[in-house]
Amino acid sequence: MDVAAMTSKQPNVRAHTVIDPRTMGRPVHLLGGFANQLRDDFADFLRARINRRYKASFQIDAISFVAAPADSQRWLSYGVDDGRIHFAIERPLLLCLLRYRYGSVMPETSAATDSVAPPSAATIDEPETATEERLATMLGQQLIELAVRRIESVQRASVETPAPVTFAEASLQGASDGEWLLRLTLSETRCNVGGDLLLKISAVWMNRLLQALAPNRERSRQKQMTATKPFPARLQLTLQARLLEKEVSLGTLLDLRLGDVLPISVGDADVLIGDSRLFTASVAEHHGKLCLTTLADVD
């Protein structure tokens, strides 16, 4: 027996997806469409407010929207109504934006490599300046306002007064239940930098967003009630009742004048669907209306 062949066989282990209980019963599958709308909003902001003004080339390379994991990130926190949204940006991106905003000398592009060296480690490791923090605070407020307006636009009820966004504090913020992380990966070619821009959205605003994205409950309930009825109850047919037939000669028909009376006798009526005769029924009078009763199958 070949022992080596036996030991080399790997068991067929099937990978299982771990379900986050925070996503159960909620329309999280619709967050991708919302994230794409927000990406367009942020791209327009970068194009109009930064790239066009400072001749920069910031662009969004990727976007993701996931339940917020635990982290030790330093966040800028903003109060929005009765909730909060936190903001963070990686320092190489912020330093590149700082160069453009304050007219610093930009790095020269090498003709051989057609690229520039990224910011040195010494620059990144230097303590953050007050100017950087002011720029990050202003940028965070502008982007969070865009995110809040986008959430408000998704809500079914029109918002009379837009929610104000105010800076609260800069501090370490752990992940709380119900928070979600929006991650945008940005790059800028002239500074040759890339990094992440992060928004951590509190449970209050995520609940608003998910409620707005959820399908109309009343409409869904009506569809569900209709779908649960058995098929015979959902199939609608039109019945026609033929009450009588009387044969007359052509001469009698031609001699009929206004006011003449044709004697008839009412017997069983024929019940049809289209041209198909399915039942016979007795004709009865009930409260001044003719009714069909005693339906019997046609042999």
Automatic annotation (TrEMBL):
<feature type="domain" description="Flagellar motor switch protein FliN-like C-terminal">
    <location>
        <begin position="235"/>
        <end position="292"/>
    </location>
</feature>
<dbReference type="InterPro" id="IPR001543">
    <property type="entry name" value="FliN-like_C"/>
</dbReference>
<protein>
    <recommendedName>
        <fullName>Flagellar motor switch protein FliN-like C-terminal domain-containing protein</fullName>
    </recommendedName>
</protein>
<dbReference type="Pfam" id="PF01052">
    <property type="entry name" value="FliMN_C"/>
</dbReference>
<dbReference type="InterPro" id="IPR036429">
    <property type="entry name" value="SpoA-like_sf"/>
</dbReference>
